[in-house]
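Pair request: fold both.
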Amino acid sequence: MTVAAVAKLFKLAVTGLAVPSGSSGTSTVTITPQGGYTGTIAWTVSSSPTLTNGCFSLPNTTVSGTSPVTATLTVFTAASSCPAPAVAAATARNHALLGVGPRSSGNDEGHPVSGLQAVQASMAMAGLVLFALLGRRSHKLGVIAAACILVVIGIAVSGCAGGGGGSSTSSPPATATPTAAKGMYTVTITGTDASSTTQTTTMALTVD
């Protein structure tokens, strides 16, 4: 009597999932051993279309008995929520798309005020010279020149005070966190163990 050998393998099943864009959700992957299968399964997960600004997390799963084993697939639909190092490459791409660049230090805004203050200071110096010349010839003209000098100095002082406030920079607007596009995705889950036993299943993912 010939007894057919039963291949040692595993079967996969997974539940569908709906996740609000910007949030995360979980689905259960069930591994059912057959033919006395045991082993540790590593996973690869992909989607069609690609889940841009999102990622998947599914830890290695060990089957050591005859009963089905479950694993938790986590779907992240915001790049900032993806655990490292899965988010490393996506983060660099997001910065390029958003056009994030070096911010201005705000020093350039102070240059026009500094120029005005320099002109006012020059006018004050010229007034002092004029006061010295006129004071020798006429007391009345000297008083008028002194009054003009005080006015110019007052304008210079107010310009300095105003310039100090203008040099401060306002807070930049907050940048929105990149999130996955809403829609339907087909997620492909492939499990492979050390003996190269491989099984694949698919899951319907809705991002709304």
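--- second member of the pair ---
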Amino acid sequence: MKPILSLALITVACTRILAADATPKDEITAAAKKLGEQSNYSWKVTTVVPESAQFKPGPIEGKTEKDGFTYFTMSFAENLIEAAAKGGKAALTDQDGSWKLASDFENAEGPARFVARRVQNMKLPATQVTDLLAVAKDLKKDGDAYSAEMTEEGVKKQFIFGEPKDPKGSVKFWLKDGTLVKYQVKVEAKMDFNGNEFDASRTTTTEIQNVGKTTVNVPGEAKKKLM
């Protein structure tokens, strides 16, 4: 019994040593990987922009299943848009509620093209966190969260259109029992639109919900577009 007990004590000691040696980046990387391996989960995104902003994006609520479909809704200019994705293809509803591939809006004018581009560039939280870690500088524990400034290139990647001026940004992650529960991206920059400069700053917060308890229901018309 003594050898077995000694082995158990050694194992516990080694586990504690490894845990103590883990860096903040290691912990968040492990949490993102753990989330990506889940059979399903939901998330909600809220974005806060300056009062002067021309476009004020509403909340995004999404659901995804491992190796399956992703479905989400987003509010834009008082319109509710449905979107779905699978295998690198994305589709969304137009102003009449009909499903179209996101690529069909490539030459569209105005908000339609902007929304379609957002849908095409939408990344699942597990993937987005990994990308954010790659551009995080000096990640440190900050109370019950982990925070870091972002590289200039990392901030620029947060903008779909245009070239941001004087870009600055930071990222923050919240973990609970080794599980990712929330993360936030804050960017500051000026942008030029038709010769006019405006404040393109925003704070985007993503909350992870219902891990392992989410059912993804995708409309039949959307599935046909993605098959």
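Observation on the second member. The chain has one domain: 23-226.
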